[in-house]
Each structure stands twice: as C-alpha cells, then as structure tokens.
Amino acid sequence: MTTDTEHGIRIQAAAGKTASRKASPMFTTGEIRKVFTDWAPRYDATHAWRTLKRREARLALGVQPGDRVIEIACGTGLNFPHLRQLVGDLGQLVGVDLTPAMLEVARESASRNGWKNVEVREADAADLPFPAASFDKAFCAFALNIIPEYERAVAEVMRVLVPGGRFVALEMRSMDTQSWSGWTARLAHRFMRVCTVDGSHRSLEAIQRAFPDVQVRPYWAGMLYVAVAKKSRVGSAWPS
Question: Is the bond preceding 25 in cis, omega lying within 30 degrees of 0?
Fold first, then answer.
C-alpha cells in the first residue's frame, strides 16, 4: 500500500511498506541501506520493469574490449552480464553499492559465472575509493534520484574517469503535470511516485554542470532519460 505525500517520495519496500521523507535529502544513507537490505533477495524479480531502456543506456556507453568500467549503485548486478560481455576478458568491471546484502547477490552472480575480472565493493557514490582517472566508462541506472549527495556523486564520477571518458546515466525525471489532464496526469503522477522521483533532485542538471558535453535522450514524454556525458580530453575538446 502506498500513500501520497505533499512533497516527499518513497521507496516501496519488498514487504509492501514505504519509507517516506521530506525532500532534500530524500533519505539518509542508513535508511537506503536498510531498505535495500530487506529488498536484496527479491530485487531482481520485483524490478524486472526497470530493465526498460537499460540496453539503450549500456550501448550508449560505447564500451570497447579491454575498457575499465565502473557501475555506480550496481545493486544485485543486473547489468553485469551485459557489461562483462562488452569489456571482454581483458577489461575490468567494478560495481559499487552502499548495501552489503545487494553486493552479496552481485558477488555470487560473478562467482557463479566465473567472471574473474568483475569486482564488487561497498562504497558511497559520493566518496568513491579510487584514484583519479581509474576508469574509461561509468554507468548508473535508476540510482541518482535516491543518492542523498547526488551532486557529489556526479563530481566523483567525473574525477575517476580518464580524460575523454564517458558517463551514462539512466534515470527518471520529475515532470510538471499541472497542465496535464485526465488519466495521463494521474498515470504520470503515480508512475513518478512509485519510481522514487523527487522534484528536489536535479540529477540531470548536476550532470550538465559537471560535464562539458552532455547529450540527453528523453523517453516517455521526458519522464525517463538517458544522459550521455563526455569528459574533455586534456588540451582538446571531445571530438564530434
């Protein structure tokens, strides 16, 4: 059961309960860890709908065999099979997440598939434990809207990317539906609510401020977007 809040959003937990907080920040890191710890065993089964547009987002990364790729808020590793295939045997895939229970599922998946070059680490996206210029590509799907310090997280992605590196984010975006009418407005409002979209989180704007070159591919009347952000090369702009 879910209930409306005037300005807040919620994470719909596996038990059917919701965690709701006023916006900015939406949740503390402790709250996020608790909810997703409870969710971990059933996350993949209950979130199949969130595979929508993931393929487009992954392909937008432009991963080459041998690339070093980091996935921010990797969760249970839903994207690992696809990203691992792209980096190949000579590349490296690192997934970071705040919740040990989610990472345990991801770690078991990597072990079961024999992926020696896939690593998972517990880390806050706003404080990544990697040196600058550690990765060629960075990926994040449906997570920026629930990261309390999402602007710092975007800055951290920029920091750990090599010059010329690429960051792709797949995310929901709050929409102004006041001018909409009838079932479209009701559907949009409910969809954004369930997807934990909060109007105070301006994740796309944060990406556009941090990166010099950002292309946005909107879907579903702009409620869903894929942002392809490119870090400048040293001494030159990213080639067109």
Answer: yes
Please report, for residues 30, 33, 51, 195, the alpha-carbon distance to residue 38 in angstroms, rounded to integers and kept in the order given.
13, 9, 21, 18
Which residues are bridge partners to 94 per DSSP? 70, 119
Using the 8-state DSSP alphabet, how is residue 40 labeled?
G
Domain residue limits at 61: 9-230
What CATH number is associated with residue 152? 3.40.50.150
pLDDT computed for residue 240 by the predictor: 33
Output the pTM of the full model: 0.72
* pLDDT, tens only, 164-193: 999 999 998 765 444 445 544 555 555 455
The mean-pLDDT minimum among 10-14, 196-200, 214-218 falls in 10-14
- C-alpha distances (whole Å) from 118 to each of 60, 68, 123, 140 are 20, 10, 16, 16
Q: Does residue 103 form part of some domain?
A: yes
Domain count, the chain: 1
Inside any domain, residue 2:
no
- Residue 125's nearest CA partner among 94, 162, 152 is 152
Are 135 and 94 within 8 A, CB to CB? yes
* φ/ψ of residue 11, rounded to 5: -100, 120
Sheet containing 161-172, strands listed edge to edge, beginning at the edge strand earlier in sequence: 118-122, 92-97, 68-72, 135-141, 161-172, 224-230, 213-219
